[in-house]
Each structure stands twice: as structure tokens, then as C-alpha cells.
């Protein structure tokens, strides 16, 4: 298993979730999804972060994600979501925004597939997000 970045932050963890979703939602990460992930992480990192900082976070998160074997990635995803739920860096009332990002990411390469919907529901369950919110998104 590949270790997370040394200076692990919320940007890395969100990137991991988005890479996982893009890869396992429909089997591949296409250019439109990569662009959507970049734009989403840039929004999360805020206006004070530079292009270089955002790029660094995305590349480190990609190395982390890509360095894990496929069979390890779901466990890493669960660990990431567990850390996010407990973290002071991301208030729990912001966790539903991750789902909105996933819907946007799913739409980046066309329609939301059944597999992508199932993955959104799985992530929502792990993050303990109210189903009413999810239904409003989908």
C-alpha cells in the first residue's frame, strides 16, 4: 500500500475521493473528469492558494491513489472518509458538498451512470449524509 502524502491535508483527502469516484464510477478517468477535479480542488483550496499549490496537492494525491493496488483503494477511501468526519479542518456540515462535487464530476463526461449513482450512495452512507439531501442532488 502506498503511503499518503507526508503533509496530508483536506485537499489530498478530497482529491483521493474524487480520483476514486472518477476511476471506479465508470472504469476510467477521462480528461473532462481530470479538469473537473482540478476545478473542484481549486474551489476547496480557496482564492489564496496558487496554481502551483493546487497542482502539488493534486499530484501528491494522484501518486497516493495510483500507488495503491486496486484492491486496497476501497479501504483507503473508507479511512479517508473516517478521518474527514472526525477532522476539525472540515466541519461536518460541509460534508454534503462532497456529494454535490461527485454529481458534478459524474456529469463531466456525460450522464450519471447507475454505477456512479451507487457509488455516490455508498460514499453518502459512509459520510453519514442525510438521504433527503442526496435525492435532491440526483
UniProtKB/TrEMBL annotation:
Family matches, as InterPro entries: DjlA_N, TerB-like
Span of domain Co-chaperone DjlA N-terminal: 26-132
Pfam families listed in its UniProt record: TerB
Name of the protein this chain belongs to: Co-chaperone DjlA N-terminal domain-containing protein
Amino acid at each position: 500500500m502506498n503511503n499518503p502524502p507526508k503533509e496530508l491535508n483536506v485537499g489530498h483527502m478530497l482529491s483521493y475521493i474524487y480520483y476514486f469516484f472518477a476511476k471506479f464510477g465508470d472504469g476510467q478517468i477521462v480528461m473532462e473528469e481530470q479538469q473537473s477535479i482540478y476545478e473542484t480542488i481549486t474551489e476547496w483550496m480557496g482564492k489564496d492558494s496558487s496554481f502551483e499549490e493546487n497542482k502539488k496537492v493534486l499530484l501528491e494525491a494522484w501518486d497516493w491513489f495510483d500507488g495503491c493496488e486496486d484492491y486496497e483503494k476501497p479501504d483507503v477511501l473508507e479511512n479517508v472518509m473516517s478521518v474527514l468526519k472526525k477532522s476539525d479542518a472540515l466541519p461536518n456540515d460541509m460534508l454534503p458538498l462532497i456529494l454535490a462535487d461527485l454529481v458534478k464530476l459524474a456529469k463531466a463526461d456525460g450522464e450519471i451512470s447507475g454505477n456512479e449513482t451507487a457509488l455516490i450512495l455508498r460514499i453518502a452512507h459512509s459520510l453519514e449524509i442525510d438521504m433527503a439531501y442526496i435525492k435532491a442532488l440526483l
